[in-house]
Amino acid sequence: MSATLATLLHQVEPTWRMGLVERLDELAQESSGPWNNAGTGHAALCELNYSPQRPDGSVDVSKAIDVNEQFLVSRQLWSFLVANGHLPDPESFIHPTPHISFVWGADNVAYLKARYDALHGHPLFAGMEYTEDPAVIGEWAPLLVAGRDPEQPVAATRSLDGTDVDFGALTRHMINRLVDTGAVSLHLGAEVRTIKRDGEGWLVRGKGEQGKFAATAPFVFVGAGGQALTLLQRSGIEEARGFGGFPVSGEFWRTTAPEVVERHQAKVYGKAAVGAPPMSVPHLDTRMVNGKPAVMFGPYAGFSPRFLKNGSLFDLVKSVRLHNLVPMLQVGVRNLPLVKYLISELLASKNRQLGALREYFPGARAEDWEKVTAGQRVQVIKKVPGRGGVLQFGTEVVTAADGSIAGLLGASPGASTAAPIMLQVLNRCFPERMDEWAPALEKVIGTYGISLAEHPQCAAEALSETAEQLGLRVNH
């Protein structure tokens, strides 16, 4: 998020100078790291949690369309950066990878068919395919059907517009480019401890490998992942009051066995278990990291009081304030199925976890797989008037009334939608400059200010142009 915001700011104000502070000794070692997330370019092509089923059996696809639009904005930013030499060969961070939704059981098959019917006529989903034929599914993703009961009803959709993204590599590419141009000074191994008002700006203090440090700035963005909540609380801004965080950890099983990797070239998403958070939707994913292929399955949700993978066991406790204690307790009481689900996941044996894998890959062998710990996520707890504490599974931009400080809370859909979320930050923090910046933003993002859902020709052109620039498929 910070890399994306800095990139956009450099495009609209190339004379501005920015400081980027990272508490670890390397960039992108938390949630942006390739093994800390699924690497899915979240375009809602296969993620079923973005298209819930209504009581009457129809499917609400409004969120799916919104997420797809947002990802296309990010693709346009990356395409611009590649075309102008600001990013290296796109193969170093993005790869064409089919996105498949796969379900079994009569009710789930009916749901997936209703979802397909609601989506495939939309210009952003025009290339989507649907089948209930196990033989066709076997051509798309052989591991899904080999060894499966032939009498079991199954269905799948496939979109060849899908991608696998190494967000860690992308983050490093963007920041290194900004450092090389002199737009950003990078400070590694330096942890921000306090953010306090300093006149019309902010005084940022912390401690690093070189000792204590302090800096002043008229604008601060807190892109510290799960730790953003704590830093926003320390800033004292009124807008951060009432917010809390619910940390959720996760694990994946990973394999590099050639006989598995060679037979699975797709990202396959299913339906989440009852009571599971959206980030726990099971998926069997092709990954390409540092030029080497792998397959991951998960995530298996768990609980840790840390707000970062490399955080403190006291993060959750330190985030509790008088203003968010009641909302946090209300969320705990209202989400008992989620609590029950997390406890069951924590107690799950290795055999039970492998059993979940075999629901997608019946022929999976335990000896081919190793367990890896995913990045830490902190779901937003928000105080809503008239409703009290509410657990949110999206992202939340928090800004001070004067726009001098902003931060991002939440997880899903995360890095895939970094560009539109950071455009939101610009709008909220620099409203008086947006008209002046519009021409530059239109060069960076060709559809800036245009609703792609309402302009199908623009959507088709943006898909085609970014696919060509990024070396992706054009499936329309």
UniProtKB/TrEMBL annotation:
The annotated pathway is:
Carbohydrate metabolism; tricarboxylic acid cycle; oxaloacetate from (S)-malate (quinone route): step 1/1
- List UniProt keywords, sorted A-Z: FAD, Flavoprotein, Oxidoreductase, Tricarboxylic acid cycle
GO molecular function term, any single one: L-malate dehydrogenase (quinone) activity
BP terms from Gene Ontology: tricarboxylic acid cycle
Fetch the Pfam families from UniProt.
Mqo (PF06039)
Q: Respond yes or no to whether keyword Secreted is given for this record.
A: no
Name the Enzyme Commission number(s) assigned to this protein.
Answer: 1.1.5.4
Write down the chemical reaction(s) this protein catalyses. Answer: (S)-malate + a quinone = a quinol + oxaloacetate
Which cofactor is essential here? FAD
Group of enzyme by EC: oxidoreductase
Protein family:
Belongs to the MQO family.
Q: What is this protein called?
A: Probable malate:quinone oxidoreductase
Organism the protein comes from: Nocardioides jishulii
